[in-house]
Amino acid sequence: MAQRPGFPLKLEKASPAPRTLKTNAPVKSIVQSEVRAAPAPVQNLGMDSSAVRQRMVQKLAAQGLQDPLVLQAMGTVERHRFVESALVAQAYEDTSLPIGLGQTISKPNVVARMIELLREGVDGKLGRVLEIGTGCGYQAAVLSHVATEVYSIERLKGLHEKARANLRHFRLANVHLLFGDGMLGYPKGAPYAAIISAAGGDSVPQAWLDQLAVGGRLVAPTVTATGQQALMVVNKTPQGFKQNVLEAVHFVPLKSGVS
Ligand code: SAH
């Protein structure tokens, strides 16, 4: 991977995995709740102008983000539609924000960075992607622009419902919201071209490794040997798993079970 300004060095370097396997086939039979079109909630607070998002994209580019497809997606998805009205003014700042039930929407830089890592070395869109931790649905919406299918699973019923309400406006036919324990992955949709976790665990669950396609990649915040949380990138190659530990991050904890 080329070094990019603004990010700490990798601790370990592995050769890029071949990314050949296509997991593009839609899995309609496993869908529990698809996002359907409905009238848009009106949010007329000056945030509807694409200029605010373009400014955010320029900042992301200045921070070292460079994948055109990811930057385009970040410039397209209206982040202000995913946050409480009291926080709308901060929607395009590079900050994480509360989304209820003690959870947070990741800051734009981290969302873009993780998706860029997922897409590294991939020509065109990613195939089928599994996201663990739907939260408010923002990252799922961004993913929908860079992947053919997005399966996003959330363990808190309240947030699963909130994400469904938030995403309705966008009519994203390739986003499928699931309610369940994402630590178990979602075997019916496997294998996945990419798996991304928005919650940090002590290790990468075996289910995720099992459900990743050969040639696929997983990005997840994970506690490392030093006790700090860092971004973990795992490539599943024909020869086995190759793991890289990248920069320190601060994500909400990965928890088991549903609530
Ligand atoms: N991608 C989200 C970020 C949400 S924060 C967004 O754009 O808003 C992380 C989310 O992970 C929280 O909503 C939390 O409830 C969820 N989570 C934690 N452990 C989980 C698990 N085992 N399965 C599914 N979701 C989980």
Features:
259 residues; Rossmann fold; two-stranded antiparallel ribbon; 6 helices; disordered N terminus
Protein topology:
Blueprint: E1 33-34, H1 50-62, H2 68-76, E2 97-100, E3 103-105, H3 108-119, E4 126-132, H4 138-144, E5 147-154, H5 157-168, E6 175-179, E7 192-197, H6 206-211, E8 212-223, E9 229-237, E10 240-248
Parallel strand pairs: 4-5, 4-7, 5-6, 7-8
Antiparallel strand pairs: 1-6, 2-3, 8-9, 9-10
S-adenosyl-L-homocysteine is lined by residues 99, 103-106, 132-133, 135-136, 138-139, 153-156, 159, 181-183, 198-199, 252, 254-256.
Separation of the first and last Cα atoms = 39 Å
Which ligands, by name, code or SMILES, are bound? S-adenosyl-L-homocysteine
**Which series of helices and strands comes N to C?**
EHHEEHEHEHEEHEEE
Q: How much helical structure, as a percent, in the residues?
A: 10-25%
Examine the coordinates and then state which fold CATH places here, giving the name of the CATH topology. Rossmann fold
Second rung of CATH, namely the architecture:
3-Layer(aba) Sandwich
How many helices? 6
- CATH superfamily membership: Vaccinia Virus protein VP39
- Report strand order across the widest sheet: 1-6-5-4-7-8-9-10
Largest sheet: 8 strands, mixed
Q: Point out poorly predicted stretches.
A: 1-34, 36-45
The general outline is globular
